[in-house]
Design a protein that fits this description.
The protein is an alpha/beta fold and 370 residues long. It contains twelve helices and 17 strands. It has a four-stranded mixed beta sheet, covered by helices on one side. A four-stranded mixed beta sheet has the order 4-3-2-17.
């Protein structure tokens, strides 16, 4: 097994001891202490009226999240337009302001899933959280600068007094998904892309997943959605909804731009197994209309709109809505598969125009409190 050595500690909260022999990368549906968000502000991603539109989505998100969760909101510097707009957004959202902690931390953009810290439990114990601080390079250097995003895990570790382990490997949270039982989903399109870790091969990546996340088996999918500027994050394709059970985006329309990629990924899943050797249980989700009337930031006319980009809050499942023709069916499927969660739809057409959706902008936090 080949491990990447951690980079030097960056603060007094950094972890200095090696990882414990038993570590758990928890499933998203277990209880977390807060949800991380970053207020939208980047004019390159949200030009003109687009900023007002995405802020409306964020107001809805805050209202729905605070029904069950506390929210850590990265709002920018207190003297910045972002901070003032975030404060107005909190007030206008109807959310409980006592459940929102606004922090004066500046970001480059909103994609907290990808630059936020991934928490593992040392010795499998939720009382022993460790923040893994992977390198973030804006999906292969596509959208510089990204240094403020890359600094978020260290700032959160310092703010909440949590141990942090920097890791010399590029990894985004949206590129992986786990069932909390040792199985991980990811894609070749991202992990084997030379714009992330050019000297890494499949074996080295799997070894690092085992060493740092406690993963015992990796299920590899192929390509991602058309218009996904991350190169193909798995959280737009296939997600765990229970140990050993996944939902995967699928279309039966051979003229759909995503037909071939989704069909191949579905076939891989049908032959895949979990860490304990049992076959995956595979359910399909419909695909909404992904066409945009105006091209996105990278010129794409097809947006990475997917119902798989949902987020487990504490006791609820927040599902992005895009298309009345398919929204109801997606909600029905997910409610049947997640009977212990209230499934709530949130209109996200104006969010996915920026090439991400609910899961992309949220990140569960453990070990934080106020």
């Amino acid at each position: 097994m080949t491990l990447m050595p951690p980079t030097p500690a960056a603060s007094s909260a950094d972890a200095t001891a090696p990882l414990s022999p038993t570590r758990l990368f928890p499933a998203e549906w277990i209880h977390h202490d807060a949800t991380l968000l970053a207020w939208p502000h980047n004019p390159d991603n949200w030009p003109g009226h687009r900023l007002n539109k995405v802020e409306a989505v964020y107001r809805n998100l805050l209202r729905e999240l605070t029904v069950t969760d506390k929210v850590v909101l990265l709002a920018g510097r207190p003297d910045s337009p972002s901070w003032h707009r975030a404060m107005a957004g909190i007030k206008d959202s109807g959310a409980d302001p006592g459940r929102i902690l606004a922090l004066p931390i500046a970001t480059d953009d909103v994609w907290a899933r990808d630059f936020g810290p991934i928490t593992i439990f040392q010795n499998g114990d939720p009382a022993q959280p460790l923040l893994l601080d992977w390198s973030f390079n804006s999906w292969g250097g596509k959208y510089p600068p990204f240094d403020r995003d890359n600094s978020v895990p260290a700032q959160l570790a310092e703010r909440f007094g949590l141990p942090r382990l920097p890791i010399d490997m590029v990894l985004e949270g949206g590129a992986i998904d786990t069932d909390g039982s040792g199985t991980l989903l990811t894609t070749e399109a991202v992990q084997l892309n030379p714009n992330r870790n050019p000297s890494f091969g499949r074996e080295r990546i799997e070894a690092n997943f085992e060493a740092f996340l406690g993963i015992r088996h990796v299920v590899w999918l192929g390509d991602g959605l058309e218009g996904d500027d991350t190169d193909g994050h798995v959280d737009d394709l296939t997600r765990f909804v229970a140990p050993g059970t996944v939902v995967t985006a699928m279309t039966d329309n051979p003229r759909d731009v995503n037909y071939a990629a989704l069909k191949e990924n579905h076939e891989r899943l049908l032959s895949a197994r979990c860490a304990d050797g049992t076959p995956l249980r595979v359910h399909t989700l419909p695909m909404p209309d992904t066409r945009s009337d105006t091209p996105a930031r990278d010129g794409s006319e097809d947006l990475p709109a997917s119902y798989a980009n949902f987020y487990f809050s504490n006791g609820r499942l927040l599902v992005p809505f895009y298309d009345p023709a398919t929204d109801g069916l997606a909600l029905e499927i997910l409610q049947d598969l997640c009977p212990d969660h209230e499934v709530v739809g949130i209109p996200c057409g104006d969010l996915v125009w920026g090439q991400g959706s609910i899961h992309c902008v949220t990140h569960q936090l453990h070990g934080v409190g106020w």
